[in-house]
Amino acid sequence: MMRCWRVKDSSAAIIPARRLWLRYACSKLFVVGLSYDTNEIALRDAFAEHGEVVEVKVICDRSTTSKSKGYGFVRFSSEKEATIALQKMDGECLDGRYISVHYANKG
User: Fold this and answer.
1) CA 43 to chain centre
2) d(CA 71, CA 55)
């Protein structure tokens, strides 16, 4: 599993090449804490205020009428827009629940 990392000085730390991802180079966000009623339209609308949303995916439980499992992903057209959205949306209330936003892991 690869993560996004912010490295200010590449000589300060030696990180395996497969794990070297700059945090500012991530355009995909992981959103957790979603309401079970949140759908992709609501998630897209909430994040579209902060940049051009390219892709939205709410992970659903197929066994129970396709309700949200409480997490999803949002991909932006640029890393800068994703960073702004992360800063603005982390800890905000969406559909009655406070959400946490993180950079998505590569994998």
Assistant:
1) 11
2) 14
| Residue 16 CA neighbour count, 13 Å, CB half | 5
**31: how many CB neighbours lie within 10 A of its CB?**
27
Q: What is the pLDDT along the chain (107 residues), one digit of tens a residue?
A: 444 444 444 444 444 444 444 444 589 999 999 999 899 999 999 999 999 999 999 999 888 767 889 999 999 999 999 999 999 999 999 999 999 999 998 65
What is the rounded distance in angstroms from the CA atom of residue 102 to the CA atom of residue 86? 7
Question: Locate tokens 């180079």: which residue?
Answer: 25
Q: What is the pTM of this model?
A: 0.74
